[in-house]
Amino acid sequence: MRLYSAKTAANAVLFFGEVLNTFSFPIQRIQTDWGTEFFNDALQEELMVHYVKFRPIKPRTPHLNGKIERSQQTDKAEFYSMLNLKDLSLPLEKLLAEWEHFYNHKRPHASLKGKTPYEKYLELEDKIPFQGDVTQAYWDSPSEAIVPRNSKYLDWIKEHKLSLLPEM
């Protein structure tokens, strides 16, 4: 969890770097909604450099990102609702880090049968693939193309054999 002042491509790249530096296992895939912050060359290229596949969900289908949606619901109910967010003197980054630690190390999760995410991680630690295996699987699979945000439109243009270039 991190706080950013805006949803921008640069912040998406920064957050991805935070994920890589924080997680103790290789990231194999990133699944997002269709926010413009995810559909930019900088982030897409960064994902490819680290052998991470990008999987956008279908537009208007937040239920396909159910784990994130559920986590955000918990954050709103159990963390943000306890704060006066109009108080600009709050050390939000510090409070958020404390909440994240509590959420992952102390708070039991019903979806994990009463375990914390950290306890579940320790239980599965020996099954976590090595980075080399993830890299090899990436190389062995079809190459990842940078997906433009307007890919549906571009597919339609190709299907109808039209050109985006102006007539000369």
What tags apply to this protein structure?
168 residues; mainly alpha; 2 domains; two-stranded parallel ribbon; 7 helices; 5% strand
Your description of this structure?
This protein has 168 residues and is mainly alpha-helical. It has two domains: 100 residues, no CATH class; 65 residues, no CATH class. 46% of the residues lie in helices and 5% in strands. The chain is built from seven helices and two strands. The protein has a two-stranded parallel ribbon with strand order 1-2. Helix 2 links the parallel strand 1 and strand 2. Helix 1 runs parallel beside helix 2. The chain is globular. The model has no long low-confidence stretch (mean pLDDT 88).
Mean pLDDT: 88
What fraction, in percent, of the residue positions are helical?
40-55%
Q: Please identify the structural class as seen in this structure.
A: mainly alpha
| Main sheet strand line-up | 1-2
Q: How would you describe the shape?
A: globular
Please report the total strand number as a whole number.
2
| Low-confidence spans | none
Radius of gyration: 19 Å
Question: How far apart lie the N and C ends?
Answer: 51 Å
Question: Could you state the order of secondary-structure elements as H and E?
Answer: HEHEHHHHH
Characterize the largest beta sheet: strand count, sense, and whether it forms a barrel. 2 strands, parallel
How many helix segments? 7
